[in-house]
């Protein structure tokens, strides 16, 4: 693995983000799961206006953000009514070897994986294989030995793990970032519970927990009767046609993988992939923009109710359930089932979102049900606050239409 710092001068950054027509624009492939448009004339008029007025603004805004932060690479896409109507690839897959960035370039989506984990549990719930309100210690006995901060707390439930209200700390004793061969083992994951303290009584407060979602992967495995990743592959990735999605960097096909970079000393240094092993459920999935557009299309086209018939991998009512507030409400946002939820504060309505970040990758995925658009941004730079500027810029522009 190369370890030298690769500074990216502004002039080079600008040249890299000057996209050719074949590296962006309208979707190269038809939307895999298009919404049933009730008024074709209204939809066409809206899309004509977005293409004519919004696309040029989006081009300039995203170009400027990428040039300012000098990302090694980034790919961004806009969905309207479930269709990928605009995308752009910026930079190169590898700062030494080059490689164009397109809808099939693969990035780790990090904690956005949690939305897949929650979806897997909803599928199992609907199949009658798990009760989300059951004590999680029925599947993970080690949880029963975690001391309660109060005498009236009650056992941690599966639902509380999903909604980050279990009281478990963010990481605890779990180490999933240190370079190693093989990744986190099941034994190490369970040992991470030893000696920890709950941040609050179960169900009382919100504490975002990677550890909790890693444990959910073990629960999926037991309820499904197969490894977590195998169940997600069979029940979600396959039905949605997410053909580039993988659980290990080594499995990414050909030269599709974007090299992981960390920002250090004024430049970018190639870094390692976090070895998550048995902790995949909290943030291990790799996917392309094409994959994530298929996933987001499925999520957003359940709104409004009746917009489409039920289809695999999950019935519409359960998908909408995952988008509603289900956990503790914070001042500006709350938690659904895997998703973050920003309650409606304006005519734009609620925002359903998740951001994922490792030392080397960032994924920003969100949609606005009432405005009927969604945004995806994927990068291999590891600076979440900068990558999320892209999605915010696109959203500010498109929500006017």
Give the helix/strand layout.
Layout (H helix, E strand, L loop, with lengths): L4 E2 L3 H8 L6 E2 L14 H30 L3 E8 L2 E9 L14 E3 L4 H14 L31 H5 L23 H6 L18 H15 L3 H13 L20 E4 L2 E4 L15 E3 H12 L15 H8 L10 E2 L4 E3 L8 E7 L4 E7 L4 E7 L4 H15 L3
Antiparallel strand pairs: 1-7, 2-4, 3-4, 3-13, 5-8, 6-7, 9-10, 10-11, 11-12, 12-13
Key traits:
single chain, 401 residues, alpha+beta, eight-stranded antiparallel beta sheet, three-stranded antiparallel beta sheet, 10 helices
Describe the structure.
By secondary structure, the chain is an alpha+beta fold. The protein contains ten helices and 13 strands. It has helices at about 10-15, 40-70, 115-125, 160, 185-190, 210-225, 230-240, 290-300, 315-325, 385-400; strands at about 5, 25, 75-80, 85-90, 105-110, 260-265, 265-270, 285-290, 335, 340, 350-355, 360-370, 375-380. Strand 9 and strand 10 (about 340) form a beta hairpin. The chain is globular and about 60 Å long. The termini are far apart. The model is unreliable at about 1-20 and about 25-35 (pLDDT under 50).
């Amino acid at each position: 693995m190369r370890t030298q710092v690769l500074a990216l001068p502004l002039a080079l950054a600008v040249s890299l983000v000057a996209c050719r027509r074949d590296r962006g624009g309208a979707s190269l492939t038809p939307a895999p799961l298009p919404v049933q448009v009730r008024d074709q004339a209204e939809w066409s008029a809206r899309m004509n206006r977005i293409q004519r007025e919004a696309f040029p603004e989006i081009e300039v805004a995203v170009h400027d953000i990428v040039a300012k932060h000098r990302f090694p690479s980034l790919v961004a896409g806009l969905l309207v009514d479930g269709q990928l109507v605009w995308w752009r690839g910026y930079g190169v897959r590898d700062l030494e070897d080059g490689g164009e960035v397109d809808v099939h370039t693969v990035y780790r989506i990090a904690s956005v994986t949690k939305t897949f984990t929650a979806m897997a549990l909803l599928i199992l719930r609907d199949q009658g294989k798990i009760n989300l309100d059951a004590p999680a210690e029925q599947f993970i006995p080690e949880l029963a030995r975690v001391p309660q901060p109060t005498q009236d707390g009650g056992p941690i439930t599966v639902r509380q793990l999903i909604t980050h209200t279990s009281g478990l700390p963010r990481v605890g004793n779990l180490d999933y970032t240190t370079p190693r061969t093989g990744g986190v083992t099941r034994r190490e994951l369970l040992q991470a519970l030893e000696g920890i303290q709950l941040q609050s009584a179960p169900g009382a407060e919100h504490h975002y927990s990677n550890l909790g979602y890693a444990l959910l992967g073990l629960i999926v495995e037991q309820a499904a009767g197969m490894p977590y990743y195998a169940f997600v592959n069979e029940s979600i990735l396959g039905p949605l046609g997410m053909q580039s999605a993988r659980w290990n960097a080594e499995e990414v096909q050909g030269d599709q993988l974007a090299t992981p970079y960390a920002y250090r000393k004024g430049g970018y240094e190639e870094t390692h992939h976090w070895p998550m092993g048995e902790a995949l459920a909290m943030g291990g999935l790799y996917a392309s923009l094409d994959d994530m557009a298929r996933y987001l299309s499925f999520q957003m086209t359940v709104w409004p109710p009746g917009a489409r018939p039920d289809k695999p991998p999950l019935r519409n009512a359960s998908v909408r359930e995952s988008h509603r507030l289900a956990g503790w409400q914070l001042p500006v946002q709350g938690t659904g089932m895997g998703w973050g939820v920003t309650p409606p504060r304006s005519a734009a309505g609620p925002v359903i979102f998740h951001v994922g970040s490792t030392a080397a990758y960032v994924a920003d995925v969100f949609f606005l049900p009432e405005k009927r658009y969604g945004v995806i941004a994927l990068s291999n730079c590891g600076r979440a606050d900068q990558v999320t500027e892209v999605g915010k810029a696109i959203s500010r522009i498109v929500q006017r239409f």
